[in-house]
Amino acid sequence: MNQAREHWGSRLGFILAASGSAVGIGNIWKYPHMAGQNGGAAFTLIYLICILVVGLSIVIGEFALGRKTQLSPVGAYLAIAPGSLWKWVGFLGVGSAFVILSFYGVVGGWIMNYSFLSLKGDFSQLTGNPEAASALFNSFITSTWAPLFWQLLFMMICIYVIVNGVKGGIEKWSKIMMPTIIVILVILAIRGLTLPNGMTSLTFLFKPKFEDLSASAVVLALGHSFFTLSLGMGTMITYGSYLKRNENLLNSALWVIGLDTIIALLAGVAIFSTVFALGADPAEGAGLIFVVLPSVFPQLPGGQIWGTLFFVILFMAALTSAISILEVVTAYFIDQKGWTRIRSTILFGGIITVVGIFCSLSLGGNLNITWFLGMSFFDFMDYLSSKYMLPIGGMLMAIFIIKRWSVNEFVKELHTGMNSTKISSQLVTILLSIGALVVGFIILNEIFDKLLGFPIIG
Ligand code: PFF
Questions:
Q1: Ligand 1 neighbours (beta carbon < 6 A)
Q2: Domain range enclosing 267
């Protein structure tokens, strides 16, 4: 506890680490399909508005809270509101980290397995045959040992990075992996667009189709803007707590949001140009990544290389997000309990891995756990965190800034590290209030939809 706090080695390192947290599986398997199905550029426009109005103020809020207190979520809330119940918002963040990383680690393992399968040339048996690809994927995820082996490997890498600390672990690896992701995605996008018919993807993704833009698409865009920026569980509070006071928070937040959005768009172009060029059907989520793509890549000249590159960058995107989730838990035990980094990371990384084992086995591997709402334990953990825990955490943080910390104090913190820009407290209050209201509405809508059977919108 009395050790000096670690700080980022450079501004670039911080921006790459924070955008590494934001850029993850969500960008590559959620955004492109959502956009394609819900109005193309019309959806992207709404998504960008949501990110700028709701996302930006909450990213900055988290950075400021972390930098001001130099503590991870629980400590940060306690430092500003000692003895109050606000610390429970911090605990909600630590809890969300447990929930998210348990299933995220399983998917990380699947991605590693698929990188390896592609490298070995095993996708060649799936050429143009999505049924065979689907059978392979289903038999893999519902088996007992193979997914556990890969999940364990993924979690061990994650633990290794976090044990090495902020500068020597998170920053070092983000500085290697983020530029690699961008360069390879650009290459994959150019490869896809230069295929005959590859340009069709641009119409699918970017042609504004306002007739497809329903009210539920707007709700979807709002919810996703939250997940994709890793908001609501204190990841950005924790990363902000390793900042020195001379950082320009607004500028950094704009970089993180910009990189997250550009990478989502690039992923959309890379994936759909290839899928359309080869006449495959665009699917969503796991089906797109683990079924459609493995049957499409081998049809390309050099497909083994393109497929491997794709899965390797997906692995990197998943890893830079997973480490940010584990860091929230590790930082809590370092900051609040005075534990060593190595002890907290190994113990809690281990516990999360064990919860993840149940997620994996719930998909069929001998332990068919059906949790409530008719979902597997795996789907339930995903649902619980992305539809409730993250939005509630983000909404409460916005309320905390307005009601407890005070917008003036928050704006004072923002001005530290900024040269001349002056931010208006009124504008900040309006943006944070819109953020809290909108997110509150999304949560209510979900409760109506899932628990009462009819959504307010959608
Ligand atoms: N932003 C990540 C993605 O888009 O995949 C997911 C995520 C990471 C959510 C970290 C929350 C978090 F704290």
A1: 21-22, 24-27, 100, 227-228, 230, 233, 235, 321, 324-325
A2: 11-452
